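Hi Y.,

Following your request, here is the sequence exactly as I used it, all 465 residues.
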Amino acid sequence: MTYPWLTVTNHEKFAAHIGELMDAVTNADMYIVTEPLDQTENDNCRGKHHFSLFNLNYLSGVKLEDNPDKEKSAKLNRELILTKFDVNENVKIERIKGTDKYMLKKKTVAVDYLVDALYRRFKAREYEGIYFDFGQGEQFRCPNEDEIRNAIINAMEKSGIPDKELTEDNKKEIELYFNSFLPQGKKKRVFENIKGDIVPISTYKLERGSVRVGELERDSTAFMSESYEEEVDERTKALLKHLKETRKPKEQQTLSFFDSTGLLEKHNEYVRSFIEQDDRPPYIVNPSVFKTPQSTIIVSHHPEKEFVFRLLEHSLYLEAWIKSPDKGFYSIDYEYWKGGKDRIRRGFNPDFFVKINLDNYIALLKRKGMLEKLEELKGMQDGGCETLIRVVEIKSDEDDDEATPAKAEWAKAHFEAVNIKLLEPLPGNFDKKYQEDIKQFYTFDLLKPEGYGKWFKGLQEGRVK
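Below is the corresponding structure, written out as tokens. Let me know if you'd prefer a different format.
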């Protein structure tokens, strides 16, 4: 197989990005695949680790609630305050001979345009009882054009904004100010999820996934068992053969191909690199600790990679686990206010589902002398629980996504509802093959690497909440 040679002669900062694009083309058809394994009569087959999960079927509904914004409207700021923005943008263009400087200006908005747009909007809604206060008390009518213009001009003078220098950001400030005087209804519509029936999901239904081989030399990682030749598809086998033939010996590698994290060295009793003297994924795992029914575990970033290593390390406490795909399979709805003003409703798939057999777990804790939490676990058994399902969503230590807290809040509420539903005499109308798995209890944790130590220490001590 022959590929073209690429030489980057542009600025060095573009080299890495261009290299990625090159890999995307040359490795377009080179993928490692993951799929659910078949269950055979062979006790050593990892297909025996398949298990069932239960989700809730939600129905969409709408209800009316008292509108808190109605009370807030009486406390609105009655003065328009504008921010002075710099409208100039400096652009420096280098030429072959000499240097030219250009002065560009940001897009500005005319006062007359804003006045006309606001007046037309509010005049059309005057019958709703809009009230404004420009220092002369509330008036149950929309403001006229002069009042709107005076409010804007006065705010510009106080902020030192010259004429013809209102920016698009100022336009937003002005619109938010006038919109705040629109009448607020006494009630507001709230969309809600009405809890329906329990829905069973088998890990047999996990969809095929894949990772491009070029990604394995960046952030992604693939884990396969020692028996991979019996578990992966023919295309993946061919790719693995190609890797063995083409990857360079260790002395010819760049430093980026070494396991700088030390995870391989720390867990080398049960995990090794696919090619000797080469630390790049895929990694080969001893089947005795690889308790997942998936042919390959594919993770996309380092926090997930580290979590998988820790699951392998603590396999004695676990009966089975899966790495869930990013979409489909098991989705949980959540919503949050983006930027504090836009209501966003989405769904996400937790990263890991970890199954723990409660009988085996309690017996192991007894042997290890971890007796402090046994009463709590036995209490769960007395309540009819046979299996713990530990659900985990992984984030990086640097994660600051404003949606993350909402995911944690909604997921915890979801699994609390699932636990309650599973305790009902007839939680759902589904196939009898799922009935024996229904005695489950779910927990949810949103974890960052800084919290891994505490989570796994809790696993060793019998703490599940």
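The longest strand covers residues 187-202.

Thanks again,
Q.
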